[in-house]
Structures are given as structure tokens and as C-alpha cells.
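Listing S7. Sequence submitted for prediction.
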Amino acid sequence: MSWILLLIAGGLEIFWAVEMKYSEGFTQLVPSILTVIGYILSAVVLALAIKNLPLGTAYAVWTGIGIIGTTVLGIFLFKENLSIPQYICVVLIVVGIVGLRLLDKTAA
């Protein structure tokens, strides 16, 4: 259950980061409000997840999910570009997240 909570927290991190982009520096009311709500919910769900997961592992996975999700959505929603070395680095983050999950001794 903790890993599911961590995935939800990561999804919420992606949500608030994208909303922050849409807020245009907190000048747009609705995206600004959604950013704050998403951020708070993400932190609360992360706090629930780390009750049963190692802090370092959970935080690394949480931020990794955010990095990967915002990178992908940045490409599709905002037409952002990545260089080949940047793609390689994102793939390494994915490998790191998978490795942390597979090597977690608390996983059932």
C-alpha cells in the first residue's frame, strides 16, 4: 500500500508542477489555486507513504516520478525539446527508480 501511496504522491507532484506552468508565475488564479492544492496533497500523501518506506528511497522515487512525468508532459503539452544526453539522463532516472523498487527490502 505504501508504494501505491508513493505513486499517487508522484502523480500529484506532476499535477502541481504542470499547473504551476499554466499559472504563468502565479498570475492565473485557477492554475495557481490548483498548484497549491496539488502541492499540499502531494506532500500529505508522501508523508503517509514514508510511514512504512525508507525516507531516502521514497523521496528519490517521488522526485523521480515528478521529473519523468513533468519531462514527458513538457514535451507533449508545451513543445519542449530534449537533447540526446538529456533523454539518456531521464532513462537513467527511470532505471534508478526501478532499481530502488526492486531492491526495497520492505516491499511485499
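Caption to Listing S7: primary sequence and predicted C-alpha cells for the chain studied. The chain is about 80% helix and 0% strand. The two ends are 9 Å apart (CA to CA).
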